Amino acid sequence: MTELKVPESSSYEEEAAFWDDLDTADFMEDDENWFRFDTLHKRAIRVAILPEIAEELMRTAQAQGVSIETLVNVLLIEHMRESAAAG
Predict the structure, then answer these.
(1) What are the φ/ψ torsions at residue 73 (nearest 5 degrees)?
(2) Which residues neighbour 34 within 8 Å (Cβ) at sequence distance 6 or greater?
(3) Integer CA distances (angstroms), 54 to 32, 34, 60, 79, 82, in order
(4) What is the pLDDT of residue 38?
(5) How does pLDDT run across 20-76, given as a tens digit for each residue?
(6) pTM of the prediction?
(7) Distance (Å, rounded) from C-alpha 21 to C-alpha 86?
(8) By CB count within 10 A, which of 5, 17, 40, 48 is most buried?
């Protein structure tokens, strides 16, 4: 694992460019635990999604200006509400 060194920036734009271009993979331990986290009351889970579905979700999320996580959660909530109302 490499140590992250943040350079001094002379402007907001310069600092933003650094963070936008940063690939954090080099700074994460490869123990497969870094992406897991617990919240106070609920636990986030990881779900495998077929690549072609993931690509469509990413395009839709980007077009709507939201993260793929937000989009998936909204779609799931809508589906569950529709299922409950129909059921």
Answers:
(1) -65, -40
(2) 28
(3) 21, 22, 10, 18, 22
(4) 56
(5) 887 777 766 666 655 555 556 666 788 899 999 999 999 999 999 988 999 999 999
(6) 0.50
(7) 46
(8) 17
Q: Which two tokens stand for residue 64?
A: 């709507």
Q: What is the pLDDT of residue 11?
A: 84
28, 1 in Cβ contact below 8 A?
A: yes
Residue for token pair 């490869």:
30
DSSP 65: T
Q: How far apart are CA 25 and CA 47, in angstroms?
A: 20
Residues 68/57, Cβ–Cβ less than 8 Å: yes
> In sequence order, which residues have a C-beta less than 8 Å from that of residue 25 and are 6 or more positions away?
none
Q: Taking every pair of C-alpha atoms in the chain, what is the biggest distance, in angstroms?
A: 59
Q: Which residues pair with 38 in a beta bridge?
A: 43
User: H helices within 1-87, ranges in order?
Assistant: 12-21, 51-64, 68-86
